[in-house]
Amino acid sequence: MSDTARPAIEMTGVEKRFGSTEALRGLDLAVPAGTVCGLLGPNGAGKTTAVRVLATLVAPDRGTARVAGHDVVRAAEDVRRAIGLAGQHAAVDEGITGRDNLHLLGRLHHLGARRARARADELLERFDLTGAGDRLVRTYSGGMRRRLDLIASLVTSPPVLFLDEPTTGLDPRSRQEIWDTVKELADGGTTVLLTTQYLEEADRLADDIVVVDHGAAIATGPPARLKAAIGSQLSVTLADPEQLASAAAVLSALSGGDAKVDVAERTVTVLAQPGVAVLLPSLVRELDTVGITAEDAAVRAPSLDDVFLALTRESADTLRSAA
Amino acid sequence: MAAVYAPAPMPSRPARMVVDTWTSMLRILLNYRHSPGLLAASLGVPVIMVVVFGYVFGSAMRIPGGGDYREFLMPGLFAMVATNGIMPTMVGAARDVGRGVTDRLRSMPVSRTGLLLGQTLADLLVSVLVLALLALVGLAAGWRARGGATDAAGAFALLLLFRFVMTWVGTCLGLAVGKEEAAGQLSVAVFPVAMVTNAYVPTGGMPGWLRVVADWNPISSVVQACRELFGNPSAAGDAWPMRHAVLAGLLWSALLLALCVPLAVRKFATHGR
C-alpha cells in the first residue's frame, strides 16, 4: 500500500484450465489502489475464476497474479491477510447469530476475543444490523444475509475487497443497500474488484470496467469511454411508408451508419459511427428539408448494454484495438 | 475505516492452530446451543435404540452359548453411537462447501488443520454426553460393566477414539461430496455398513461370505473389544480381528486416521483447484 505506483490488484497472462474447459486464457488486469474495477461478462466468461485466483482459492496454471503487492501463489498467506471476499452465496453460518458470525470471523483473523467482539458490535451498528444481530441468521431475509455476508468480509478492514456478483438475485432495495455500502467503502479508500452481469451495477460503481469474454479481457476503460467507443442510436417512425427509403438515406448520411428499415413498424433505425454526434433538432430539420414528417424521432445515447452486446458479439481482436 | 482492525501481527503457526481449533470448536458448539432440537435428537437416539433393539428385537433373541441379549446388545449400541460420528461432520462439511463458507475460510489466514480439528473435537464433546446418557439408560435396562473400572474406562476410551475417527471419515466424505443434499443421501449408505456387523446379532449365523465382511468390519472390532472389556456376553468366531479385538480396534482407528486426516486437510486446503 505504501507503493502507490503499483496496482493493488494485477494479473498478467493468467491461464486456468479445469479439465477440458479453459476458464481463463491469458487474462490481464491492473486495478490501481483505491479504485473500483468492474469485471463484466456473460455467464462462464471466467469472472468467478479470476476472483478465485486472486483470493488464493485456485492456483493459476500460467501467468502471475499479485494482490497488495504479494504473489497469490508464493505469498498466499500475505494476500489472505490483505483481502476480504464476499461471494455469490451468503457464506455465513445460518445456525448461529449474525453477531456470532462476525465475532468468530474476527477471532479467526486473530484479533483476539475482546477486539473481535468489539469489532462485531461496531460493524453491526455501522451497517444497521444491530437489531438483527442477536437473531439466528436462518431467520434473516435474503437481502439481510447478503448484507451480513458483505460485512463479514470487512472484519479486518481489508485494503482489497473482492465481490463476486454481490447483488445477483436480490430485490432492488437490497441491491441499492449493497451499492451504497460498496460506494462508502470505495470512498474510504478500499480497492474493490467486483464481478457482475448487471451493466447498471458496473456503470454505477466502477471507475474502470474490464469486459471479459471467453477467459480474456476484450475491452478496458472507464464506463464513459467504453460508451464513446460506439455511437448513439437514431430512430424515426413515419406516417407514410412510401417515405421510408428516403428517410433511410437521410439517416445514413447524417450518422455515417447503415440504416435499417422495418416496413411493418414503419421505422428506420441506425447506429451512428463512433464520434459522430447527431442532435435531435438537426435530425428533424434534415428530414423536414426533404419533406418527410416523422411521427416520432429519437436519438439515444449508447448504454453500457449496447457496448456489452457489441463487444461480446464481435471478435476479441478487433475490439482490443477499438477500445 | 479505523486502522485499529488491520490484521494483528500474525501469531506463530502452532499458536494459530490452537486459536483456530478453539474458534472452530466454539462455532459448532454455538450451533448446538441454538438448535436444542438437534441436541435432543442426538440424546434421544440412545434411549430409542435401547427400547427398539433391547426390548422389541431382544424379546425374540437368543445368544448362542447363553447370556442376556441386552447385555450382549449394549456394547453394540455404544459402538453405533461412535459410528454415528460420521453424520454431523459429513453433513456439516458438505453444507459449508455448498454455501461458500469453506471458500471464505480458505481465503483467510487460518490454520486448515485447526479448523477441521475444532469441528471434530466439538463433536467429540457432544458424543461424551450421548455415550454417558446411553450408559445410564443401559444401566436402567440391566446392563453392567462387569470387567472392572480400568477395563470399563478402556472401553469408553476406545469408543471415543473410534467416534473421533468417524468424525474425520465424515469430514473427508463431506468435503468430497460438497453438497448438503448429497451428504444426506450418502448418510443412508452408512446404515448397511453399520448393520453388517456383530453389533445386533452374532455373526455365526450369517452366510460365510457375509460373516467374513462382518467380522472384518472395523465397527465389529470395536463392539467385540467393548464386550471383552465390559465383561459382557459375546459370541465371536475365530477371525483374527475377533480374537484380538482391542488390538484390531486400535489398528483400524490408526489406519483410518492416518488415511482420513491428511486427505481431509488436503481436500479442504485445495478445494476447487
Summarize the helices and strands and which ones pair or pack.
The complex is a heterodimer of chains A (323) and B (273).
Chain A: E1 9-18, E2 21-31, E3 36-40, H1 47-54, E4 62-67, E5 70-71, H2 76-82, E6 83-86, H3 98-108, H4 113-126, H5 142-152, E7 160-164, H6 172-187, E8 191-196, H7 199-205, E9 208-213, E10 216-221, H8 223-228, E11 233-238, H9 244-255, E12 260-262, E13 267-271, H10 280-289, E14 294-300, H11 304-313, H12 316-322
Helix pairs in contact in A: 3-4, 5-6
Chain B: H1 13-34, H2 36-57, H3 69-83, H4 86-99, H5 101-106, H6 112-140, H7 149-177, H8 180-195, H9 208-216, H10 218-230, H11 240-243, H12 245-269
Summarize the model shown.
Chain A has 323 residues and is an alpha/beta fold. Chain A contains twelve helices and 14 strands. Chain A starts with 8 loop residues before the first strand and ends with a helix.
Name the chain pair whose interface involves the most residues.
Answer: A-B, 44 and 34 residues
Oligomer: heterodimer
CATH architecture of the largest domain in chain A: 3-Layer(aba) Sandwich
Query: Total strand count of chain A, please?
Result: 14
Radius of gyration of chain B: 20 Å
- Summed over residues and divided by their number, the pLDDT of chain B gives a mean of 91
Assigned CATH class of the largest domain in chain A: Alpha Beta
Biggest sheet architecture of chain B: none
Q: Major β-sheet of chain A, in short?
A: 6 strands, mixed
Low-confidence stretches of chain A: 315-320
The number of helices of chain B is 12
Q: Please list the strands of the largest sheet of chain A in the order they lie side by side.
A: 6-7-8-3-9-10
